[in-house]
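So, could you explain the following?
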Amino acid sequence: MTIGFIGLGKMGSNLARNMMEHGYKVIGLDTDRRIELCHEGESLPVYQNADDFLAALGSGKKIVWMMLPSGEITEQMVQLLTNRLSAGDVLVDGGNSNFKDSIRRAKGCEAIGISYLDCGTSGGMHGAKTGACYMVGGNYDAFRVIEPVLRDTSVDRGYLYTGISGTGHFIKMIHNGIEYGMMQAIAEGLAIIEKSDFNISLSDVTQVWSHGSVIRGWLMELAHGALAEDETLSSYQGIVGASGEGKWTVETALGLEVPIPVISASLMMRNMSQGNGEYSAKVLSMLRDGFGGHMEPT
């Protein structure tokens, strides 16, 4: 199977390598620059022109996988591709698009015979390389076409067909809202310890919490790794970005009249972070950097 891959950034490049390591032929499109990705001495061809990129995929059914930022960048790429793809082709949006945009795009693609799959992707940069977690909505037959790729590049039991178009990105949105709340709780707890009169190593605390405790998990492991290097987190200002999913989760909950005080408060705390040296904000910034390579806004 040949996969046309668009968006060779931190997540995308690792996912492309993952696919290559599992025997898939990958062809890249990067309109800004050429990126050399290699696997076992074989380089991944990267095109700068969409027509050349699509021609390289051959004349049969095409599978194009996007890993682009949500919003206008993805919108423009979808428009460019739908003017060039043919009936029967499959277009996968593996980024964090708003689920309402995904529903609209899927309808537009369906009208011309193209299958649009909204594929929420979790696991950060490490997961993209070694085993991701996927939530996929859209046409079921198209899902079955890409299912071997999902199975090969995910962790065990790490992919789910969620149903109709929009559901993949909807579930990923809720996932990220929960992530906001979990990160905020970890950050606040560590901030209390850091400010207390007790001389307790935060590195030691997060290490023991990572082994057998109720709150163990990857976020705690990331916290331990960073704190083991520098408990003051001096390289972080504490300016915490929000990529959109937390806001969409809150907006959706308001529309459904579902109370979500934890997720709402965690979003407000991110909006309030201004690099004022608050330890909890530094922890949040460190965790975002740890799993997603998200640098602090300047």
Observations:
- The beta strands are 2-6, 25-29, 38-39, 42-43, 46-47, 63-66, 90-93, 115-122, 132-137, 154-163.
